[in-house]
Specification:
Blueprint: E1 3-9, H1 20-34, E2 44-48, H2 58-66, E3 72-76, H3 82-95, E4 101-109, H4 116-124, H5 139-154, H6 158-172, H7 186-191, E5 194-196, E6 199-200, E7 209-217, E8 226-235, H8 249-262, E9 271-274, H9 279-288, H10 297-302, H11 319-322, H12 328-343, E10 356-363, E11 368-376
């Protein structure tokens, strides 16, 4: 059995002069402290990659920086799903008896450590090396194609997508670590600079510096027993030209596995942390997971379903769209927020009795999916 015993996240935004390992060190030490563990108790480490520091052995680089001597250490790579996959890998290490306390950490200085053009070029590399990348495609362009198809098939509108950006900004405004906190309206989103039709500037997550870390342990924390009750994965394709007919297929498969493993139902969850690199990403996942009707994610957000006082509070830290996105740590920040909410430690953002939560991450262009069910013991 695996439990989340420690979490930490830095502010996202600009951290000039600090590299990926510096940022990861800050988050990792804070998470170890949050778990109330001596450093030597950490006997496993799964590190995320960093595009601004592409070392071949990031796991041991981080272990060396932290002064750890783990029984197991490696770097994981699965795009935006890396953090979630690393938590599942930590669980498997614990179940195998190989480790008792596994540090999962990610961090990067994408905003100050490379140019915007370099960041766009690096991320575009998930595309097909012959049929997509040479044509000048980018991640926003790939997701714009998905957005156009989603709008056509679901009958939603660009203003519906804008509602999700507005919601994430509203949530970020209550978190001191968020990168973007200025309130926005649907009209603001619609009037923002075109990026790749139908996506506009405010439909897209920002590029950030930052880090986050999670401790996965064999035994629960005395403060609050947060158990990894269920997990699931789906890897449906890599290149957008090979995407399944159902845009939400990977999310559905991973979620079904996660809920079956946990022995719970989606209708039971009271808190969600869903990957939101672009507004259509979030809409597609919410609807594929049955958390909103087809074409209805934006309307559900407008009607308050996903607000702090709604039926299913969502990404209460502001998500990737407003808290920020610095690679692997982007999704890990969702985990940190959910765990703090489940402990009752979210301050002004706190929701009532979130005993069961679902988290979902994707990597690539809806390519790899990982779902997690977290359960708080009574």
């Amino acid at each position: 059995m695996a439990h989340i015993t420690g979490v930490a996240v830095t502010a996202f935004g600009k951290h000039a002069g600090r590299g990926p390992v510096d940022l990861m060190e800050t988050a990792a030490l804070a998470a170890i402290g949050d778990a109330d563990l001596p450093r030597e108790a950490v006997d496993g480490l799964v590190s995320g990659y960093a595009t601004t520091y592409p070392h071949l052995m990031m796991g041991t680089v981080v272990a060396e920086r932290l002064g750890l001597k783990p029984k197991h250490a490696h770097e994981a790579r699965c795009g935006g799903a890396t953090g979630a996959m690393a938590i599942v890998l930590a669980r498997h290490l614990i179940a195998a008896g190989a480790c008792r306390h596994v540090l999962v950490v990610g961090g990067e200085n994408r905003l100050t450590g490379q140019s915007r053009d370099d960041a766009v070029k690096t991320l575009a590399g998930v595309g097909h090396p012959e049929h997509e990348v040479p044509l000048g495609a980018s991640i926003p362009a790939y997701y714009a194609l998905l957005a156009a198809r989603y709008l056509h098939e679901a009958g939603a509108t660009e203003r519906d997508l804008a509602e999700l950006a507005v919601l994430m900004r509203r949530h970020a405004a209550t978190h001191s670590g968020a990168q973007l906190t200025k309130p926005i309206t649907v009209d603001d989103v619609m009037a923002s600079k075109p990026i790749a039709a139908p996506l506009k500037f405010l439909d897209c997550c920002p590029i950030s510096d930052g880090a986050a870390a999670v401790i996965v342990s064999a035994d629960p924390s005395p403060r609050a027993a947060i158990r990894l009750a269920g997990w699931g994965e789906a890897h449906t394709h890599q290149h957008i030209s090979e995407m399944p007919d159902d845009l939400g297929l990977g999310a559905k498969v991973a979620a079904r596995q996660a809920f079956e493993t946990a022995g719970r139902k989606p209708s039971e969850i009271r808190l969600a942390g869903i990957y939101d690199s672009f507004t259509p990403t979030l809409a597609i996942f919410l609807e594929a997971l049955g958390l909103a009707p087809a074409g209805g994610a934006g309307k559900a957000a407008r009607d308050g379903r996903f607000g702090r006082d709604g039926a299913l509070p969502l990404n209460l830290h502001g998500g990737l769209l407003s808290y920020g996105h610095c690679g692997v740590a982007g999704f890990l920040a969702h985990v940190v927020e959910v765990v703090r909410q489940m402990r009752g430690e979210a301050g002004d953002r706190q929701v009532r009795d979130p005993a069961l939560a679902y988290l979902h991450a994707d990597g690539g262009v809806l390519s790899s999916h990982v779902g997690l069910v977290l359960e708080r013991a009574a």
